C-alpha cells in the first residue's frame, strides 16, 4: 500500500466534515477524499439494510480512488454497517462509535453517560454496548434527536427554534444527572454551543471526531502508512447532490477553502460501483 495515498472519509451529508477537520489537525501531511451523500441524507431514518447498501456503494467508490484507509464518519453507518464493511474490504476501516465511547468512559466521574444520536443509531444500542464493554458499571441514557440533522443542514445553528428543540430533547438527560454527553452524530458538533448551554458547563461533551482522528493516526502509524512529508496536499470533495451549505459550513469547520466539489450519482449506473 502506498503511504502517500489519500484517506477516504464519508458521511450521509455535511456532518463528517467535523471529523475531517480533526483529521486535518492530527494528520497535517495526509491528503483526504471526502464523500457526502447529500442526495440520500439523513441516514438516521433509514433501515439497516439501506444504510449498508449506501455505505458499500460509497466504500467501493473510495477504493476506486486508491485510498489507503477509510473513516466511516457517520454514527448511523458506523452502528449499522461497519462490521459488514470490514468483512468486504481489505484496507483499514474505522468508525466513530468506539473512539467516542472510550473517551466518555475515561472522563466520566459519576458513571452516568448520556448519548444523543439519530433514531437509527440509538436503536442499534451500539453506544450502550461499546461503553458497557469498557465498564459494565456505567449507566447509559440514550436520547434520539432526529431534528438536529435537518437543522444543521439548514444552517440554523443558533436559531431560537434550535434552542427550543434542544431544550426539549435534552431535558431527560438533565433530569438523569449525567456528567458526560456523547455527541453521537457527526452533525451535532455544529450545535455544540447550544447543547453545552442547555446542559450546563458541569457536563462534559464528547466529540467523537477528535477521538476518531487520534485512532486513525495510530492505525496508520502501526501499519507504516503515515505520510511524513507532503508539499502538494489537495483534498478532494465528492457529493451526491448540490448544497451551498456544504461549502459554507465546510469552510467554517475546515478553516480552508473548498475549491472543487465533484457531484456524482452512485445510484444510477456509476462506473465506480
Jot down its keywords.
273 residues, alpha/beta, Rossmann fold, 2 domains, 6-stranded parallel beta sheet, 45% helix
Would you kindly provide a written description of the structure presented here, covering whatever features stand out?
With 273 residues, the chain is an alpha/beta fold. It has two domains: 7-95 and 210-263, Rossmann fold, CATH 3.40.50.1860; 97-208, 3-Layer(aba) Sandwich (Rossmann fold), CATH 3.40.50.1860. Helices cover 45% and strands 16% of the residues. The strands form two sheets. Strands 4-3-1-2-9-10 form a six-stranded parallel β-sheet, with helices on both faces. A four-stranded parallel β-sheet has the order 6-5-7-8, sandwiched between helices. Strand 1 (7-11), helix 1 (17-26) and strand 2 form a beta-alpha-beta unit. Helix 1 (17-26) packs across helix 10, helix 2 (48-64) crosses helix 3 (75-88) and helix 8 (160-175) crosses helix 9. The two termini are 22 Å apart. The mean pLDDT is 91.
Mean pLDDT: 91
The number of domains: 2
The CA-CA distance between the termini, in Å, is 22 Å
Order the strands across the largest sheet as they lie in space: 4-3-1-2-9-10
